[in-house]
Amino acid sequence: MFDLSSRRAATDVVARLQFEGTGVCESDFSTRSFDGDNVNSLTDGPQAAHMAGISDREVGKLLNDLPSAHGSAQDGRAWKRRLHDPAKRARRAARVVRHIRFVYFAHVDDDSLFGDYHHELVSAEVLMDRVLAARASGMKAVHPHLNSEAEERLFNRPPRGSFPQVTPEYIRWYGRDGARRNEPMVREELAIELMSEYGYSYADALDIATNNSGALARMDQAWLLTRAKTPIYCRPLHATEFHQLACAIEGAYLVPLGDAQVTRANTEIARRAAAVLSTVLDEFVEAPFRIPVLAEAFAEFHSAHLLRIAHARLAGLQPMPVTGVLGWFSAKRARIYAEVQARLAAR
């Protein structure tokens, strides 16, 4: 049992994390700087912060000092004043820059090869801004398994006359009396409807609903409906946009021959973008990059992120009292899920 001060501290941490959003993990792997140097790691433990979300300090380490092709034009004395001011230094350390900006070639023709390259840079920046904004707002920033076709089927009701007979897809959209449903049935609801209508077992009904209709799982459909109501600047990415972002980051990494400083800066920014992208995925996902450098950066930080999440979930389960059969099954399922994610991350 926690004492009163521990509960109050845990509540404060959870409330603060709800406003700060979640970001990259800080496990033994991810607390290393991007070039491999060791930094101070945080102490592991069953804290409320681990249960509420993963710290985003590593996002700041990856994004706050992005390379640039331009030198600093700030006044030296003003910079020294800020450097030696403890309050300003603390605010600067706590601030997290939630965007990625590449370096553009100057004085080039938009119809040239550089114009196509700049288009890749813009695409990567816009999509990455949406990912980070969605993550900061508390949403699932990327759904790597729901593509644009699933979204299109969800928001386009087929005409009633297009069904020659009653099928699972028809039941998904229309009731027994032919009335239109306000929203299509989710997979679980459709399975229960098939059980009552045709006497299937739940396993068979769920299999029919999965393979013979476009019904989505409850959480997937809720995510798509929430995504549709979200402003475009912080709208999370489905699988199609996720792969578009990966292709744009690869395009940014393949810098055309030109200014050497721009080349060095953008290759490093692309590597950091791949690392940041891996940390917004709370489920194991294969690296979407074909370039080995980007795939390695994605896999390293993604593995560290999943390990931190798994450790946090396991630590959070230990002091929790389990009451009743449903509570026991919920705790066991959460523990199994965390262990599976940890094993996938450690492969």
UniProtKB/TrEMBL annotation:
This is Uncharacterized protein. It comes from Dyella acidisoli. It comes from the Bacteria. The lineage of its organism: Bacteria, Pseudomonadati, Pseudomonadota, Gammaproteobacteria, Lysobacterales.
